[in-house]
Design brief:
Helix content is 35%, strand content 17%. The chain is of the alpha/beta class. It has one domain (2-303): Alpha/Beta hydrolase fold, catalytic domain (Rossmann fold, 3-Layer(aba) Sandwich).
Amino acid sequence: MRSTFLTVALMLAVVSGPVQGQSPPVIPPEGTLVHRDLAYVANGHERQALDLYLPASAPRPIPLIVVIYGGAWRSGDKAADPVLAWGVPVLIHAGYAVASLNHRNSQHGEFPAPIHDVKAAVRWLRANGDSYGLNTGSLGAWGQSSGGHLVSLLGTSAGVSEMDGSTGVSDQSTRVQAVVAWYPPTDFLQMDAQRLPTGSFHNPPDSPESLLLGGAIQNVRAAATAANPITYVSGDDAPFLIQHGDRDRQVPYQQGELLHQALTRAGVETRFHLLSGAGHGTSEFLTDQIGQTMVEFFDRHLKRPGRL
């Protein structure tokens, strides 16, 4: 059964694939209750909105997973993304509510604006969870690339005031109970040293990381350190599943390893899965096996608490 719904989800992503350069839309399974463009900051920026998907047949309250698109902190959308078009149906079929977030990109506000938005969304979801039948005590997060960076920060920086910000609802926790991070940048300052021979450069002032920080990363090292998820790792962090391709030319796979190693040293449950032959967001990630691994990880920590 699980293999069947994962295959269907992948078919939906392919059938509704890019047209004239557009990303495929997120198409939820039939019967899903959908609430679109919910503002998580009152009178805020137009990007401070989320789409909420509720599996109609799942018993209430429903565990919730926040998902964040990848777009180099520069582009992307909560409702149209090739990876989310595959993954959101997978999670809904597995009995999870899904909140797909937009956030301010680097052209709207330099770091820490994106993580402030993500945490504002988490606080809003917790404050309003009862209205939608959500179990916000069982809250996971999944993101890819720049979204993987943001969910990693979400998982490691709970209670860090500089990362929490003060946007939106203020009286709710931003702590999550499980994180799946796909090919996340985790230490900007090491990325060029780790790059493949044909890989992207990150030190120049026009790199995605430099644009996020407002200056060439090696020239704003304090800001880069503040943006790194590994900076905030501590023993009470959420369990992590980190997945990365060994042929990633955008984000070196050692970035995922660095986070995994830091979490291990802190005594946090963590698993690092290196995909042989996989690049950055390539088809090796969009398989039944990867989807099942992700679902089983969330099930273990959000539905059946335990250890990896």
